[in-house]
Amino acid sequence: MLKKTVDATILQYLLEFSEQIKRGGDTLLQEHGLTSQQWTILLHLAKDPNLPFFQNRQLNRPILASELALHFNVSRANITNLLNSLTDKKLITQTEDDADRRRRILTLTENGRQLIFAIEALREEANDRLFASFSREEKELFLKFAIRCMSYLESSNIKRTREMEVESPG
Questions:
Q1: How many CB atoms lie within 10 A of CB 88?
Q2: pLDDT for residue 169 is more than 70
Q3: Which residues have C-beta within 8 Å of that of residue 82, sequence separation ≥ 6?
Q4: DSSP 3-state helix, strand, coil percentages of the chain (rounded to 5)?
Q5: Which of 95, 70, 69 is nearest to 82 (CA)?
Q6: Full DSSP string of 40-98
Q7: Would you list the DSSP string of 15-49?
Q8: pTM of the prediction?
Q9: 64-87-19 Cα angle (round to 5)
């Protein structure tokens, strides 16, 4: 018999919460011809300061395709397909890095910027509705918990990666 624990219950509620948010977002994004992965890439290129990606990164630095592949933990082929789709929709441009022609610098187009701002208003409305019953203090506390959990997971992943590198032969 499985036992009920606060830790497991929190994780299950977070997973369910995340899935419901994603489903609602997917419905909204489909109306604009985007997937949630494409939207997230656009937010990164718009340098949305709400994204954890920018916690320890300068906003003015160009974003490379390889960085996004690493950040999203997807293959180069997967990120290339996503970026090519956004390029075909004329929402981003990809240019060669002068220092290393293999690297691609990603930039939002004016169409991409306009789409971001059109969807941003809808995102703000949805966020306002979702968090309307929470005080500022409650929201800040929730954010602190989320940051602590992410920090733990990131440090655990780094530790696990280092352990795997030590264990693997040469």
A1: 9
A2: no
A3: 37, 38, 41
A4: 65, 5, 25
A5: 69
A6: HHHHHHTT-TTSGGGTTS-TTSPEEHHHHHHHHT--HHHHHHHHHHHHHTTSEEEEE-S
A7: HHHHHHHHHHHHHHHHTTT--HHHHHHHHHHTT-T
A8: 0.82
A9: 75
